[in-house]
Design a protein that fits this description.
By secondary structure, the chain is an alpha+beta fold. It has eight helices and seven strands, in the order αααββββαβαβαβαα. Helix 1 packs across helix 2 and helix 4 runs antiparallel to helix 5.
Length: 205
């Protein structure tokens, strides 16, 4: 049994002026002049980008998944969403994580729109992350809200904290998975899922 989802704690956020000042400080620390023409508006642009990159903190995946429906004529076979592209940032270096997610569940009595599954992936991806936690959060939220007979999630991603700094190893893909319910306990169900998702190409461009 998975633990209930932990919601981000409520904290007082600095205002926009403070965020822009922090960006100017980093520009100066890097050796640049934030007042030169090409950088004058960079603090504003960076703050706007952060609003987009980390908008997942303002969304609740539970509320998204609660919008289910029963009119599926008793459908109880596997529902699979394959090769969903995502963009995230590692919490250790704020470098990009680019990859794809395969997600599946076995309905018990309710199904959810596939766009909601894609949005749940984005809610967790658009937070500062590590891939292992991202994988678990997607699977756990689906299990907690839909209470299906099983959930499976596979995440494949490339980490720019590894490709653009440190060991500088390009083309390396990290793969993580979380199997719950029938996908963990029933080998045939797990094999069926793995056969469906196979090894899709990793789109990072």
């Amino acid at each position: 049994m998975t633990q209930p989802l932990k919601r981000p704690s409520a904290r007082v956020r600095p205002d926009r002026a403070a965020a822009e000042a922090a960006v100017r400080t980093l520009l100066e620390w890097a050796g640049e002049n934030p007042e030169r023409e090409g950088l004058r508006d960079t603090p504003k642009r960076v703050v706007r980008a952060y609003e987009e990159w980390f908008q997942g903190y303002g969304e609740d995946p539970v509320e998204l998944l609660k919008r289910t429906f029963e009119e599926a004529d008793g459908y109880d076979e596997m529902v699979v969403l394959r090769d969903v592209r995502f963009e995230s940032f590692c919490e250790h270096h704020l470098a990009a994580i680019l990859g794809t997610v395969d997600v599946a569940y076995l309905p018990s009595n309710r199904v959810v729109g596939i766009s909601k599954l894609a949005r749940v992936i984005d809610v967790f991806a658009k937070r500062m992350q590590i891939q292992e936690r991202l994988t678990a959060q997607i699977a756990n939220s689906i299990e907690e809200v839909l209470q299906p007979r099983g959930v499976a999630v596979i995440v494949r991603a490339q980490h720019q904290c590894m490709t653009t700094r440190g060991v500088h190893k390009a083309g390396v893909t990290m793969v993580t998975s979380r199997m719950l319910g029938a996908f963990r306990d029933n080998e045939a169900t797990r094999r069926e899922f793995l056969a469906i998702v196979g090894n899709p190409p990793l789109h990072t461009g």
